[in-house]
Amino acid sequence: MTIIKFRNKSSESTMVDAAVLAKLEEGYAKLAASNSKSLLKKYLTKEVFDNLKNKKTPSFGSTLLDCIQSGLENHDSGVGIYAPDAEAYSVFSELFDPIIEDYHTGFKKTDKHPPCTLGDASVFSNLDPNNEFVVSTRVRCGRSMEGYPFNPCLTEAQYKEMEQKVSTTLSSLDGELKGKFYPLTGMEKAVQQQLIDDHFLFKEGDRFLQSANACRYWPSGRGIYHNDNKTFLVWCNEEDHLRIISMQMGGDLGEVYKRLVTAINAIEKRIPFSHHDRLGFLTFCPTNLGTTIRASVHIKVPKLAANLAKLEEIAGKFNLQVRGTRGEHTEAEGGVYDISNKRRMGLTEFDAVKEMYDGIAELIKIEKSL
């Protein structure tokens, strides 16, 4: 049995460092004076700020600065807050709860996320059997490993220990999930190029993650696993401890989701996941909490897309989010949009996927009728 040694900062001091407080005060003043549209600015009132600025999480001594540093430095953030460790969601709940409620459309602090229910994947048939509209289908989820904090509090030794556990676990997968783990450290150029060509390789975090201290000791402890068919992928220590992804060309959501469910169950037998009674599965960013499920298609609906506002309006009715081909803040290349479920909290995993399934089926029906 591995004994995990936490860096217990709180034993050093229960007081928030004067330099941290000064940085908080300065950052808060600038944010308050800015025209930022972030959820952080919306909910970090002076009263909330004063209530939280002297608090620390018990196990890791994380401060309010650890949570909001990215939003203080990047006024163009959409959200602007991350959880440095699992306890932050409780200690700084006065700020996290309203942001979670706003982002996850009405998930109130009195609400409780339902227990994990992956359901029966076989009820989802192929959304587009004639391959007219759906280019590809993808379902992913995030998981955190129990007993480890999130990125800002991890030591290099912990990053390496986690990678070792993940690599060993994934290398024992068999059947369709059988594949190979590629550590980012010391990766050969040819392997790197192949992973880039497959759109599998993740890069060091963007400025939002950099400011949140999510990229320390890069590329130590980071790695990628994929199966031989390239339909199953796991990212180790990118934004979350684990991102588990199932995908393939075409619209067979049932097949894609079944593969993901099989993988989650196989990995969970060997790696305990961090779960919260009220918030569901815990992740670094509060936007991914709950089911952590993002089910998406790359889809061509040229008639609907001729009026993007209309497409977004119809998608919104089904709780779907429309993005460019390569995700957030990108253009639709060749008329291909990335459309996914938006709700991740307050419903089961099965229902999150079903929302996407029903919504896309309806969009295709409307496209055919135009």
SSE map:
Blueprint (H helix, E strand, L loop, with lengths): L17 H16 L5 H5 L2 H7 L11 H10 L14 H4 L1 H11 L30 E10 L12 H16 L7 E5 L5 H9 L9 H5 L11 E5 L4 E5 L5 E8 L3 H16 L6 E2 L3 E2 L12 E7 L1 H4 L2 H10 L2 E4 L12 E6 L7 H21 L1
Antiparallel strand pairs: 1-5, 1-8, 2-3, 3-4, 4-5, 6-7, 8-10, 9-10
Helix pairs in contact: 1-4
Q: Largest sheet, if any?
A: 8 strands, antiparallel
Distance between the termini: 61 Å
Radius of gyration: 21 Å
Q: What percentage of the residues does DSSP assign to strands (E)?
A: 5-15%
Secondary-structure-based class equals alpha+beta
Q: For the largest beta sheet, what order do the strands appear in spatially?
A: 2-3-4-5-1-8-10-9
Oligomer state equals single chain
For the residues shown, what is the average pLDDT?
A: 92
How many helical stretches? 13
Total strand segments: 10
Percent helix range? 25-40%
Low-confidence stretches: 1-12
The ordered string of helix (H) and strand (E) elements is HHHHHHEHEHHEEEHEEEHHEEH
Report the principal-axis shape: globular
Explain how this protein is built.
With 370 residues, the protein is an alpha+beta fold. Helix content is 36%, strand content 15%. The protein contains 13 helices and ten strands. The strands form two sheets. An eight-stranded antiparallel beta sheet has the order 2-3-4-5-1-8-10-9. The protein has a two-stranded antiparallel ribbon with strand order 6-7. A hairpin with a 5-residue loop joins strand 4 and strand 5. Helix 1 runs parallel beside helix 4 (64-73). The model is unreliable at 1-12 (pLDDT under 50).
